[in-house]
Structures are given as C-alpha cells and as structure tokens.
Amino acid sequence: MTSADSLRGRAALMVAHCAGLIDLVALPVWIGSLVAQFGFAPRLAGALVTLFLAGAVVASVLVAPRMNRLNARVVAVAGFATAAVVFHVLASQREFAAMAPLHALAGFAAGAALSVTHGTIGRAANPHRLFGIVGMAIGVFAVAFLATTPMLIVRHGGGVLFDVFSGVMVVGAVVALMAFPNTAPGHGSPSEGLGRGLSRAVWLGIVGVASMALVQAMAFGFLERAGIDRGFSRGAVSAVLVALGIVNLFPAGLAAVMEKRWTPRSVMLAGAALQGVLVAVVMLASSFHVYAAFSPFIVAVMVFTHTFAFGFIARLDRSGRAVAATPAMLMTGAAIGPVLGGALVQASGYASLAAAAIAIDAFAVACFLAASARAAHSSTMETAS
Question: N or C, fewer C-beta in 10 Å, the chain?
Fold first, then answer.
C-alpha cells in the first residue's frame, strides 16, 4: 500500500503536482501562442486561459470538501486521462467558440486531479517539507518545458503546444495509476461545505494566497508579451524564460530547508510585498537588462512564499480539506489574472498592470497579517486551556 511519505508515493505526487500545475509553468507561452500563432487579441487569449483556470477552480471547490470520502488515486487517474484527451482535441482547433468549452473541460479534469494531489500532501507527516519537495520537481519541469516548447511552436505551429500538454497529462495519468498514494475514505457528510469548521485564520490565509496568485497570473501571463512589445528580440525573451525556469529549481527546496529558521508570518508578509515590487519593476522596465535581471524571480517569490503558506494552512487544518482547495486558492486568482491583465494592457498599457499588482499585494499583506494574528491568538487560547 503506497503512502504519501514513501519514496514511491512522493515520486507520484511530484509528477501529479507538475501535471496539475501546467499553467504555472506554461502561462506566458500559452498566452503568447494564442496571440501570435492563433491570432487572438490579448483579451480573448487571456479569456481562454481563464476558462481553463475557472474549470480547475470549480473542480477544486467540488472535490475539496469531499476529500475524506474520495478514492484519490481514481480521481487523479480519471482527471489526468480526461485532460489528455481534451488537450489532444484542442490541438486541431482554431476557433474561439470551439476552444472555449474545451479549455474549461480540460481545467475541470486537471483541477480535480490536482485537488486530490494537494489534499494527499496535506495529510503527510510534514506537509511543508513534502510541498517543498514537489515544488522542486516543478522547477525541473519548468526548465525542460521552457527550453523546448517555444521552439517547437515556432517550427510546428501553435497546435503543438496542446499536444505537449496532452503528453504531460498522459504521463500524469500513468504514474498516478501505478503509484499514487492510497487514501482510505473517512467519515463526514459528502455534502459538508469546505468552510464548515475552518477557522478565520485559514480563510484569511486562503484569500492572501489567492491574491498573490492573481498578481502572479497577471504578470507571468504577459511576461513574454511585455518583452516583445518593448522591442526585445524573441530569442532574448526566450532566454529570460529559460533563466526563470532555472531560478525556479531552488525556491521550493530552499523553503523546505528554511522551515524551522523562518516563521510563516515573516515569509508570507515579505513575499507578498516583494512580489508587488518585482512585478512593478519588470512591467515598467524600458531596459532589457532590468527586464532580464528581475523577471526570473517573479515566479520564485510566489513558489517560496506559497510553500510556507501551504504549511501554515495545513497545520491549522489537519483534515486535508483546506489544502485540497489549493487549486481553488491559486486558480481563483489565476483565472481572473489573464483576462484582467489583458484588459489592463489593452486599455492602459503595462503601467496599469504594475499599479494593480502593488494594490493587490498590499491587500495580500493585510490578509496574511490578520491570519497570523488570529492563529497566534488561537494557539495562546488553547495553551491557556
């Protein structure tokens, strides 16, 4: 019987994490391909990716409260297999009307698989460390994806992007079938709401993560276009994306190592503030050197901060329900990000995107500050009693 803390189980969770969070790696290439290869305006390109993310949010909201009653392996295999088929069909489509529902269906399938993946991680002996480990895997995956896929698209057209996505989902389904950790269904009503029994500290943490995810999606989704629109060569921008992937090899592992040295409170507050500053600098940069120097760290800050936030939330709710909603946390913000970013860029340019990032991250800082205060108060009350 495979456990989440066994080597076999960890390997399966690493693969599932990478497949389920394909958008985290592919967003700039995805939107860039929809604009350059398929001819969609930024707003429509952002809307298609938003539909994928919205589908994942819906799946996560449905799966998370039922986490204790589901066979996680079955959900993971079915979700990734369905997403693989849908992405394969997308590769041959060119019209928005046909691509829109397919994006939503692929997001729903992948989101269901990702929800049970994160819920299983939340039940591990040390959720923070395991989430850091699977985060390292997505860093390796990002390097491979960003080093190869943009060139494949240039040579073979935009459809190959969805063929790559389909292949990733096939690998996710096969590995889940062979080694996904077993989770025995527990007790509780299948209609029990996610919010029932969750503290305000948990909800504030969730809102803070979703806010950072919104900024991440706005900035990362238009990172490639921001460079191209400023006249930087496609080769130079692609090199920046590869550098971003290389930088992302380290933050999750570093977060796992620093678990006992830095408090979640300090990391969440500093991470949200730093994210806003980085996005503003990159989106306002007129020099390629500034763009290239700061862009690789936009995703790294999110990965590092979210690892601490994941551990913070998992410790407050040991049922696994709250962290099973991680796709909803990430993708509620991320679903709004591409279409909001596209609307801002189309209406007022990249400066408006920078201003929005600063404002939203300020709100995230406030959420994390309140969550930490409530968690500390609850801990004090429990100790006193």
Answer: C
